[in-house]
Amino acid sequence: MTSCFLSYSESYRPLMETLRRLLEILEFKIDVFDGPDLDRPPLAEFQHRVLAADCVVLLLGPREPRPGQQDIEPAPWPAEEGIYAVAKEKPVALFVHPGTRIPETLRTLQTPARFDFWSADDFVKNVHNIMKHLLDLKRRIDLPAGNQ
After folding, report:
1. Where does the chain show beta strands of DSSP type E?
2. DSSP 72
């Protein structure tokens, strides 16, 4: 079973739970820190968990909703975990809340699926893009080297 590290900020935990269920349906084994951002384990622990995973699903958004704003700083944990995953050449599926500044390391990674992390309606409108990203990630992991 493909193992996946799911990176998010506690401010959009309901979205993380929805994506976790989608990943389980797609037969991913999910590793996620379920506590509040302030209770995150030491840096070495998240690095170990990212290295142990086959891939990373990254929810990159601000700490709180900021409708209509642009160039918003992302929550620190997901940004750091995403940058680390890319540095370790882990396949990543990137999901971005509109207006969130994407760290330079992640910008050229892929065209992210963008939707409002706090809007169920926006999630439903974009579920086809979300599923495409998750299925593409699974395909990249499941295909043998050279066939990707």
Report:
1. 2-7, 28-31, 55-60, 92-96, 113-114
2. B
| Higher local confidence (pLDDT), 51 or 145 | 51
Q: For 49, how many CA atoms within 13 A lie in the half-sphere containing its CB?
A: 20
Q: What distance, in Å, lies between the first and last C-alpha atoms of the chain?
A: 18
* pTM, entire model: 0.89
> Do residues 65 and 52 touch, judged by C-beta distance below 8 A?
no
Tokens at residue 121, please? Answer: 């309606």
Q: pLDDT tens for residues 11-49?
A: 899 999 999 999 999 999 999 987 655 566 677 788 899
Residue 73: CB atoms within 10 A of its CB come to 12
Using CA atoms, how far residue 133 sits from 35, 41, 72, 138, in Å, is: 26, 28, 23, 9
